[in-house]
Amino acid sequence: MGKVQNNKAWFLVLPVLLLVGFSAVIPLMTVVNYAFNDTFGNNEFFWAGLEWFDEMVHSSRLHAALGRQVLFSAAILAIEVPLGIFVALNMPKRGFWASFCLVVMSLPLLIPFNVVGTIWQIFGRMDIGLLGHTLAALGIDYNYTNDPVDAWVTVIVMDVWHWTSLVALLCYAGLQSIPQAYYQAARIDQASRWAVFRHIELPKMKGVLLIAVLLRFMDSFMIYTEPFVVTGGGPGNSTTFLSIDLVKMAVGQFDLGPAAAFSLMYFLVILLVSWVFYTVMTNLDNEEAAP
């Protein structure tokens, strides 16, 4: 006799599904409507087909913003992942100082995005900011509001300060899950510190590293608040990333059709990359579970 299935648990999930449907699916359908239609107001729409998508695909403005976005995400991953691993390897493993370091590392993650931008906007000012004033006293010409290189450096350092803790905490959790027997065997074999990292710690951190890379890629590719507060996308368009360009197009210029097509393409790119990362993570888990 087959086992009786109890589907009453779905009633507990139903409120969540309704909430997600109201807060996510309905706005998404509105964006889809604008992406395939044109309007002149009064809630009157005219079918535009793929016109807005074609315009965005051939838009030099979009290509420039995409290039800046890819460069920013690549720089962030290249800095934060190795730095997070290094910090995790050097954190205390147990005791009071381990707890203290975990609390300190968590503090930047608790600060809201707009507050992070405001902190660094003031921090980098030449008149009242500690960073800007110190660099000026040292004779270094630093001005993130006028120099594109200074603006890029400020935004990247700000993101590294804000999010390296996440990578470090994930790597620390991965290191803590490694059985001590591996380290004892390495000591018996007189393995070097690099050999321990290469053959024990790094393979055991593969899962959490993929999660860290996925989260940091998604966050960096969708970054908006921090650079907008600090530089406003400037000077010029030097720090105008995809999200900032999208907001300027939708809110500033009120080009709802192109902005909707732009946002859907933006969403699909992030979804595609996230799916690739998820597939890789699943394959790794299956390989480790296999006998």
UniProtKB/TrEMBL annotation:
<feature type="domain" description="ABC transmembrane type-1">
    <location>
        <begin position="66"/>
        <end position="277"/>
    </location>
</feature>
<dbReference type="InterPro" id="IPR052730">
    <property type="entry name" value="Sugar_ABC_transporter"/>
</dbReference>
<keyword id="KW-0813">Transport</keyword>
<feature type="transmembrane region" description="Helical">
    <location>
        <begin position="259"/>
        <end position="278"/>
    </location>
</feature>
<feature type="transmembrane region" description="Helical">
    <location>
        <begin position="207"/>
        <end position="225"/>
    </location>
</feature>
<keyword id="KW-0812">Transmembrane</keyword>
<protein>
    <submittedName>
        <fullName>ABC transporter permease</fullName>
    </submittedName>
</protein>
<feature type="transmembrane region" description="Helical">
    <location>
        <begin position="70"/>
        <end position="89"/>
    </location>
</feature>
<dbReference type="InterPro" id="IPR000515">
    <property type="entry name" value="MetI-like"/>
</dbReference>
<feature type="transmembrane region" description="Helical">
    <location>
        <begin position="96"/>
        <end position="123"/>
    </location>
</feature>
<feature type="transmembrane region" description="Helical">
    <location>
        <begin position="151"/>
        <end position="175"/>
    </location>
</feature>
<dbReference type="GO" id="GO:0055085">
    <property type="term" value="P:transmembrane transport"/>
</dbReference>
<feature type="transmembrane region" description="Helical">
    <location>
        <begin position="12"/>
        <end position="36"/>
    </location>
</feature>
<keyword id="KW-0614">Plasmid</keyword>
<keyword id="KW-0472">Membrane</keyword>
<dbReference type="Pfam" id="PF00528">
    <property type="entry name" value="BPD_transp_1"/>
</dbReference>
<keyword id="KW-1133">Transmembrane helix</keyword>
<dbReference type="GO" id="GO:0005886">
    <property type="term" value="C:plasma membrane"/>
</dbReference>
<comment type="similarity">
    <text>Belongs to the binding-protein-dependent transport system permease family.</text>
</comment>
<dbReference type="InterPro" id="IPR035906">
    <property type="entry name" value="MetI-like_sf"/>
</dbReference>
